[in-house]
Amino acid sequence: MIGKARGDPISITGLGAHVPERVLTNDELSTIVDTSDEWIMARTGIRERRIAAPEQALTDLALPAARAALAQAHVEAKDVDLLVCATVTPDMMFPTSSALLADELGAPDAAAYDLLAGCTGFMYALAQAYGMMAAGLAQRALVVGGDVLSRILDWTDRSTLILFGDGAGAVVLERVERPGFIGFELGADGGGGIHLSLPGSGSRRMEDAEGNGFVHMNGREVFKFATRVLVASAQAVLGHCGVSVDEVDVYVPHQANVRIMDHAAGKLGIPRERMIVNVDRYGNTSSGSIPLALADAQREGRLKKGDLVLMTGMGAGLTWGSGLMEWTL
Ligand code: ACO
């Protein structure tokens, strides 16, 4: 799916993020599995990640992120009429985490649902919320992306354990004076889905499969997929919207692995200083990755009003998705 926004004056007016307190360093990981700080840094650029406390579930991370986004937008929760939560690790399958969040925040009139699109979930949710607002179905949306992947990792599997961390982010979408969103490109390839899967997590009978309930990943295949789609999706949305890559001020790729991100920025021709990188501190936080990176960029003064922002996510499905917008905050 590819589309240029119609110019509706809709944009992000609030941004928030939250990560658990507990920091897990590479050195500490090397006491759990056979790995080292040198190996992890060289292959991924990840130095440390945050891990949720045993009693913390997704909504415990998402709630502070959502409250911060609402506060920045000066929006009261009761005025939110759409709440989408992108995650692969909801508190439980149902009630949905979005419904729980709407209740805790105090948004009784909001349509609330969870969205499942792997690590690309936030980009899908952003596009949907924009679409619902542009169609006049919603007036004020809260889009949350977050995951507690530490719960679905095999803590004896060094090839996946080193990559992921926990965290959540949220944005508020409102009607504003000047249009923020310019276009989106979203896609999926279920044929490659097996390369990143969670066996035993749904209605497909998997009693005999080993490692049920844990993330299974073919790292090399996902690496190849990621380097390909980060570039192709970004080029597609830029081309469709008639925007040159030189005009991109802030590039926010999915924070999966510094090598993948550097490759994408290089192929696209985006100078590294325009790319937001926080995977070194948080690892891959799945649906939380892009809003967490946006929040960091804002805090560091790297997201300014008028900046052209290019975001691209990719992940399980396999899925990918890009969004192009002018920052209006
Ligand atoms: N520590 C030390 N050695 C390791 C580790 C580790 N943590 N993990 C694997 N190795 C070993 C392997 O056993 C292998 O040893 P061998 O040569 O003796 O067989 C060697 O290191 C090389 O293994 P590769 O898998 O080929 O290493 P690669 O360079 O591909 O790096 C990595 C692995 C980092 C996982 C890489 O493939 C990658 O980043 N893939 C993409 C993963 C990703 O981004 N996934 C998520 C995207 S979607 C989403 O966000 C949910």
Which helices and strands occur, and which strands form pairs?
Layout lengths: L1 E3 L5 E9 L4 E3 H4 L7 H8 L3 E3 L7 H16 L8 E5 L10 H9 L5 E5 L5 H14 L6 E8 L9 H4 L4 E10 L5 E8 L7 E2 L18 E2 L1 H23 L8 E4 L4 H11 L10 H4 L6 H11 L8 E8 L3 E8 L3
Parallel strand pairs: 5-6, 5-7, 12-13
Antiparallel strand pairs: 1-9, 2-8, 3-4, 7-8, 9-14, 10-11, 13-14
Features:
Peroxisomal Thiolase, Chain A, domain 1; five-stranded mixed beta sheet; binds acetyl coenzyme *A; alpha+beta; 32% helix; 329 residues; 14 strands
DSSP helix fraction: 25-40%
In terms of DSSP E residues, the strand content is 15-25%
The CATH architecture category of the largest domain equals 3-Layer(aba) Sandwich
**Helix/sheet category:** alpha+beta
Distance between the termini: 27 Å
The CATH topology of the largest domain is: Peroxisomal Thiolase, Chain A, domain 1
CATH class of the largest domain: Alpha Beta
Number of distinct helices: 10
Describe the strand arrangement of the main beta sheet, using strand numbers.
Answer: 1-9-14-13-12
- Name the average pLDDT: 96
- The total of beta strands comes to 14
Report the sheet with the most strands, covering strand number, pairing sense and barrel closure.
5 strands, mixed
The CATH superfamily of the largest domain bears the name Thiolase/Chalcone synthase
Q: Name the ligand types.
A: acetyl coenzyme *A
Count of the domains: 2
Principal-axis shape equals globular
Order of helices and strands: EEEHHEHEHEHEHEEEEHEHHHEE
Low-confidence stretches: none
Cα-based radius of gyration, to the nearest Å: 18 Å
